[in-house]
Design goal:
The protein is of the alpha+beta class. The protein has helices spanning 11-24, 44-49, 90-93, 131-153, 189-197, 240-245, and strands spanning 2-7, 29-33, 53-57, 65-69, 74-77, 85-87, 96-98, 107-112, 115-121, 159-164, 203-205, 234-239, 246-251, 267-271. Strands 3-4-2-1-14-13 form a 6-stranded mixed β-sheet. Strands 5-8-9-10-12-11 form a 6-stranded mixed β-sheet. The radius of gyration is 19 Å and the shape is globular.
Length: 286
């Protein structure tokens, strides 16, 4: 099975190149973030014509997540347990966040061919003093707790957290000179600690061991891509059964080129779950 995650930065604006990538690269499961549309606005027809079924979760023109799959999508959830929400208009303009605040469209979970997949768009944080920063940290902590519980409930089932985490875990993942610790989100110690804490839930980065370097995002401004001033913020974190099944990985850097690219590129993994392949069975003649 080949899985990919991609912050597409508007599925309607880029549906042609998204579907082309999925078909060309033989993607079985594609987790998308920032689809920027409601489910009724999603361009299902183009995906279906290419052999994919889609589950989409979006509430407005912001955020939004989706999963496209060649196999049946089951056990769909649009939030993980304890996921906080964010209400920027609470009490005459005072931001409010927590489990009782309205959820944003940032998580979509499903089971596909026995694999539990989450498409996740972690809150940005905005600035170190913005309420969205504390919301981001609370969101990540709730994700850690929910993931730990989910793995404990079905430990043998492969699970993958796939998406845009809006965190640069290591200094080597940051090639953007405008992102500086102490001034910027994404590189603060608290964000990095929250990312690494996900390991305690039973998941780990399954791409880095195979692809130790490489960025997944370049800002559109100031020739960031031409200068290769990118950052690595898109990840696939797998449980032990998932990680043990990984046979390959790649970062599709070329998808940042061409007409109207997303500012992110796909991250891809191949897994082999060891199932029987009918093509390998001996032929029996009557």
């Amino acid at each position: 099975m080949r899985l990919a995650t991609w912050n597409v930065n508007s599925v309607r604006a880029r549906v042609g190149r998204i579907v082309d990538f999925a078909v060309r690269e033989d993607i079985d499961v594609l987790a998308m973030q920032e689809i920027k549309c409601k489910p009724e606005q999603f361009p299902y027809a183009e995906f279906e014509a290419a052999g994919y079924q889609v589950e989409a979760h979006g509430l407005n023109q912001w955020n939004g997540v989706a999963i496209a799959s060649r196999s049946d999508i089951t056990e769909v959830e649009t939030a993980f347990a304890g996921m906080p929400g964010f209400d920027k208009n609470h009490r005459a303009g005072t931001a409010h966040f927590g489990p009782d605040a309205p959820h944003e469209a940032r998580a979509l979970g499903a089971v596909i061919d026995g694999v539990r997949v989450w498409s996740l768009y972690v809150p940005n944080g905005r600035s170190l003093t913005d309420p969205h920063y504390e919301y981001k940290l609370q969101w990540l902590d709730a994700l850690r707790t929910a993931t730990s519980a989910e793995i404990a409930a079905v430990p043998e089932r492969p699970l993958a957290l796939m998406g845009d985490f809006n965190i640069i875990p290591f200094d080597d993942d940051n090639g953007d000179p405008d992102i500086v610790e102490g001034r910027s989100t994404h590189v603060s110690p608290r964000e990095r600690d929250a990312f690494f804490a996900l390991e305690s839930a039973g998941v780990r980065d399954v791409v880095r061991p195979l692809i130790p370097t490489g960025y997944t995002y370049w800002d559109y401004q100031r020739l960031k891509f031409v200068r290769d001033e990118g950052i690595r913020i898109d990840f696939i974190l797998g449980s032990e059964p998932f990680a043990a099944a990984v046979t390959g990985a790649s970062i599709a850097r070329d998808e940042r080129k061409g007409d109207q690219p997303s500012d992110h590129v796909p991250v891809v993994v191949d897994i082999d779950l060891g199932g029987d392949d009918d093509d390998d069975l001996p032929m029996i003649f009557a």
